[in-house]
Amino acid sequence: MHAVSQVASQKRKDKARGRKKGKKAKKELVEKWRQKAGSKAQRQALEQVRPVSSKTAGKKLKPSAKLKYSHLQKRKKKQSKKTAAIKTAEAAEKAEEEESEWHGAIGRVVGETAKAAWQGLVVTVEKAKGSQLLCQIPSKGSQWICKADLECPLLPKTARQTMAPQQLKDAARQSLQADWMQQVDLYQFGQLVTDDQLLAGWREISSRLKPGSAVRWVTPAQSKLAAETGAVCKAMEDFLADSKTLLLVPIHSSAPQHWTLLSLSKAGSSKEEQPEVQYFDTLKMQPETAKAAASTVLQVCLQTETELPVPCNRFHQSDGFSCGLWCLQYMERQAREFLGCSQSTWQTVGELSQKLQSWQEAVLKQKSLDKAAKALEAKKAAEKQPAEEAGKTKKKGKVAQTKLQLGWDEQFGCSKCKYSKTGCLACNPAKMLRWAEKQAQQTQLLQAALAALQDIQTEMHLLGKKVCCMELRQAARSSFQLVDALLPRQLDSQRSKETEGQAGILNN
Fold it and tell me: Which residue numbers delimit the Ubiquitin-like protease family profile domain (predicted)?
């Protein structure tokens, strides 16, 4: 029994000893962890105050550094540059697609690499990108076709529907050079288009299409004169003489105010060919005055009695002011069709009005810039003129001016002024002349003497002689004697005293 109790007590002691060892080991581990954590915190604190090099290009950033404000700003700036580059590339690609010669072309699929179902189909090119063409296939939609698989015997000309800012500026400058005095009253939406505004709209169209001599047009003033008096203008004569040409005649009629359009075209077979006549009137109920004016103008253009055709347009305006804008749109579409250009999309009244306003604003801005440039050139030219041509007010022949022109550098001095460099009235002729001028303004007695002294001094300098005070005093005496001889003898005593005092200064 005693042995069992000893074994049990020994086990308890062993357990207690094991628990003590475990606690001690845990305590040591905790102490080591605390030391390690403390050293890590100190190391992190030191790293925060340690200066870090700003050059991190090409280095792998730590996870904590990726969230820094400076790095976020750099990443944002880099992303914005990348986005801007993508937008620029897309704009250039879009402009290239618009200006591509394939845009609007009509061709036939003949290539072997194209699908068998597309063989022989007539397609219309919508977009060109590299060697691929996006074509509109009947009942198939838009599909990409290789350029080598498409046969286009005649590629149409391309003409943009709107102009870029720089092209708009250049076209406005050329239009002003052709007609500087043109009227550019700004069109406002809701107004009826005037003759000058229709003329400005045609200038914008011709700047984009560049029709040359193939397309002629009659101004509203000429068409009105033809309707009233039967006068034939030069454009009508040239149309009758040529074999392949297009003549556009906008006609403005009154009661009510309305614009209509006549289009006369020749295919080019012969000069005696009967031209094709098209008449455009956007009012559903056609005014009799408009039909009468158009019929008269048509007979004047063809020099024969020809019946006015029925209007060929299907569109009719829903307001009472947009007839001039529709007339401009039909003029552009007729010119594009005759020149073989791709046809423009149909525009609304707002778009037509905005296009006309943009063109007129560009012309007005260019006109003001040219006027300011001319004024600046005139100002610079006036500044470059000599002083005497610019209207200087200083008197010529003065000694000071002569000295400045000849570049003299003289020194004066006498016993009275203690040999001062600038001199005094006795030794410096310029000072004496300035003093004499002041006295002459009050008494009016030294004018003749001053003129004589100036002439003598200028003559001496021009002859290369140095002014001598003795010679100047002698000339002054002779000039004063001449003045005294010419003046009336009834001089008052005050003027005599002043003259004697001035002569005494000169003698000294």
Answer: 123-334
Which amino acid is it at 117? A
Name the nearest CA neighbour of 148 among 107, 116, 97, 99: 107
Cβ–Cβ under 8 Å, residues 157 and 339? yes
Does the residue 128 lie in any domain? yes
Cβ-contact 306, 264 below 8 angstroms: no
CB 221: neighbour CB atoms within 10 A? 13
Q: What is the pTM assigned to this prediction?
A: 0.47
- The residue segments making up the domain with residue 447 are 399-507
| CATH code where residue 130 lies | 2.30.30.140
CA-closest candidate to residue 218, choices 316, 309, 296, 308: 296
Give buried/exposed letters for 76-108 (b at 16+ CB in 10 A, else e). eeeeeeeeeeeeeeeeeeeeeeeebebbbbbbe
Asked if the structure places residue 279 within a domain, the reply is yes
Q: Alpha carbon 436 to chain centroid distance? A: 60
- Residue 408's pLDDT is 43
Residue 376 is assigned to a structural domain of this protein: no
Q: What is the pLDDT of residues 301-338, one digit of tens each?
A: 888 888 888 998 888 888 888 899 999 999 988 888 88
pLDDT tens for each residue of 48-90: 666 655 555 555 655 555 556 677 778 888 888 888 888 887 7
> If you average pLDDT over residues 171-194, what whole number do you get?
68
